[in-house]
What we know:
Blueprint: H1 2-17, H2 22-25, H3 33-46, H4 51-65, H5 69-82, H6 87-100, H7 103-118, H8 126-143, H9 147-164, H10 170-185, H11 189-202, H12 208-239
Amino acid sequence: MFGQALINYYAVWISDNYPLLKPVLLFFPKGNRQLGLQQLRSVAQNGFYTANESKVFLMKILQNQENKPDEAFPVARQMALTYPDNGYFQRFYALMCYQKGELAECERVSLDILDKLNRGMPGYEGISGRYATYFLGSIMQIQRADLVKAQDYYQRCVVFSESTGDTKQGFYLYSLLNLARIAQKQKDPERAVRYYKEVQTKAERKSDAYNEATAYLKKQKSGSKKKTKVSNQRQAAKAS
């Protein structure tokens, strides 16, 4: 039933999301998306050897493909609490806690991830660190208003992202964006400009992040020109 569930679900999902593969799917049994989910739930509840595998696919499908986080969350929580040293389950659960606003639990799990990563536990690497540091940076910035700690976590997220090559979007981009915003609040325009330039380079053109960076850099450039003009006028007045 586990194998049938995956075929039933993904035959339809692949057809919907990858039209070019439709000819290949002619060689597979005709799928049934809802039946596939029903079968996965059944195996997750009643299976012995394949129950955990079913739960992993179920939580990923409900979260990523079906956009049903309320249904995915209890599965993710169960897997994280049952296997507290599994890095993948921990970061998936931390992500869901963050998205659902369960910030106290997200903070607990994220700190635990960093502790296990620092101790060199198997399965804890740069990807887990990238998740945990971003969540902690956001919590420190928004919930605690502790910009120093937020800045430290975002900087660590940038380093983790660079170490894993994940520097296109996501946590890397928004860590840079928030570092720029923190620099503004700390009255450090040079640092803000440096971060916003990086955001402008990495973000998709015309995205909110790109537009914010462009507007700030344009404003700073305009202000710099005005200062230069005033300075030149003062020097000319002294010379006369």
